[in-house]
Amino acid sequence: GRDIEWDLGETVHLDPDQSTRGAFEPAIVELNRPGRFLMILRGSNQDRPDQPGHKWMCVSDDYCRTWSKPAPLGYSNGEKFFSPSACSDIRRNSKDGKLYWIGNICPENSAGNDPRYPLVIGHVDEENLGIIKDTVKVIDSRDPTKDSPHLQLSNFSVDEDPASGHFIVQLSRLDYEPGGTYEGREWPITRYEVSVGESEK
Question: Which of 16, 61, 66, 79 has its C-alpha lying 20 to 30 A from 108's C-alpha?
């Protein structure tokens, strides 16, 4: 590695009126123009239920040296959506060349980390910088007959099957009742195979 030269890019901040816990767990990908990058950040509205819970996005046109001011991640039609304080991922599929975002979208405003369901996937519009709403598919969600409202479909890993191009998403469906704990329990890994492209389902 002695032939590698690098320096630090600009630091990205979320103001307190955007996130009560700052900016963290970034997902970064190069867009369809060389040097142009999209970064999606986790924020939080913990202890501020009046504040909308969002993922935040910013763009660099100089290979991540400088970044635009963070704005809420939403749909490509300009509509915003709610998302809890949780990680997300963004990947370009090697088979169809499209960009996909995987994360949690809430039907109502989140409250800090909750709810971390449903877990969804959708195409990213690389020009309008948003998720194309009618491509959003649910990977998994809460089953009210057996899952508590505290179910977490987060902290997942994403890989691509090199033969099929399907995304392999793996996570533990963490769940507990109020006053309970995750400690001392075994949580099996759930594996999802998500097909994309023409055969997408």
Answer: 16
